[in-house]
């Protein structure tokens, strides 16, 4: 269970998140839609404490993210404790962010070995299995530059899965891909959804939201304007701003 309560975040005088309350149940898919600059990426980054919130709380499975409470005060966790929390939250970025000097299977195995000190042989076995799961069994020894964008993004997803995360955050995972490669990445996301992976996905892929999301959230100007099941938010939006946004993306 992921729970955000009253999350506020500003950069200088720009208030980017203006009081976000959000609950994500385990095993569900939440899709976040919204115009550029509405705070979607910042929201994801607050969930794993890549950004510090100014006000409000983020909890994952009841555990406060980034802070510990003592009495009435919150103390920020040490860098090591933050990294430990973050290791349990997968993050897949728009631009894959693979290590260029490591092969696909080395990219997948790297964090479990170096951050979680998992045994090498088992970790490599599992990394091969994860690559097979995303349809890349035959690309284990390829370097990122030898892979298409869609293949690189699938390696990045396998890498996130390697840490056995409690949830995976996806920030526009298909927006850097050529149109013909989008489908292969969305197929992997659909498989994960079917398998009950808890995911929060920022995307403009309305078709994916319609099929795979349990909850669709529409954000604008740092607020959640509307949320509900896809059939409600996408087909019968209550808010003018949601309607105006959808009429632009649903052409
Ligand atoms: N580190 C930062 N320093 C200053 N301003 C920032 C920083 N990160 C984000 N912003 C600003 O916060 C606002 C929200 O940014 P954010 O990246 O969360 O939007 P977004 O909804 O993800 O947009 P997009 O769809 O374009 O990715 C923007 O106006 C952005 O310029
Ligand atoms: Mg963004």
Automatic annotation (TrEMBL):
Q: How does it sit in the membrane?
A: Peripheral membrane protein
The protein's annotated catalytic reaction(s) are: a polar amino acid(out) + ATP + H2O = a polar amino acid(in) + ADP + phosphate + H(+)
Cellular localisation: Cell membrane
Q: One Pfam family, short name please?
A: ABC_tran
Molecular function GO terms recorded: ATP binding; ATP hydrolysis activity; ATPase-coupled polar amino acid-transporter activity
Query: Could you tell me the superkingdom of the organism this chain comes from?
Result: Bacteria
Q: What is its EC number?
A: 7.4.2.1
Q: Which GO terms describe its cellular component?
A: plasma membrane
UniProt entry keywords in alphabetical sequence: ATP-binding, Cell membrane, Membrane, Nucleotide-binding, Transport
Q: Where is the ABC transporter domain?
A: 2-246
Q: Main site of residence?
A: membrane
What name has this protein been given in UniProt? Answer: ABC-type polar-amino-acid transporter
In which organism is this protein found? Actinoplanes regularis
């Amino acid at each position: 269970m992921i729970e955000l309560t009253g999350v506020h975040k500003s950069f200088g005088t720009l208030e980017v998140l203006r009081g976000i309350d959000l609950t994500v149940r385990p095993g569900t898919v939440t899709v976040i839609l919204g115009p550029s600059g509405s705070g979607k990426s910042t929201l994801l980054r607050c969930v794993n404490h890549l950004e510090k919130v100014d006000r409000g709380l983020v909890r994952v499975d009841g555990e406060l993210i980034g802070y510990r409470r003592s009495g009435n005060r919150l103390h920020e966790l040490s860098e090591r404790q933050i990294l430990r929390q973050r290791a349990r939250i997968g993050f897949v970025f728009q631009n894959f962010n693979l290590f260029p000097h490591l092969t696909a299977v080395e990219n997948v195995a790297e964090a479990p070995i170096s951050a979680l000190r998992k045994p090498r042989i088992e970790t490599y076995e599992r990394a091969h299995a994860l690559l097979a799961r995303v349809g890349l069994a035959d690309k284990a020894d390829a370097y990122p530059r030898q892979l298409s964008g869609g293949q690189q993004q699938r390696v990045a997803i396998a890498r996130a899965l390697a840490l056995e995360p409690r949830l995976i955050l996806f920030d526009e995972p298909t927006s850097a891909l050529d149109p013909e490669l989008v489908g292969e990445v969305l197929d992997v996301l659909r498989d994960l959804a079917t398998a009950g992976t808890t995911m929060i996905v920022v995307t403009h892929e309305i078709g994916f939201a319609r099929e795979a999301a349990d909850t669709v959230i529409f954000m604008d100007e740092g607020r959640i304007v509307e949320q509900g099941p896809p059939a409600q938010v996408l087909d019968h939006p209550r808010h003018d701003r949601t309607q105006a946004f959808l009429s632009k993306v649903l052409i």
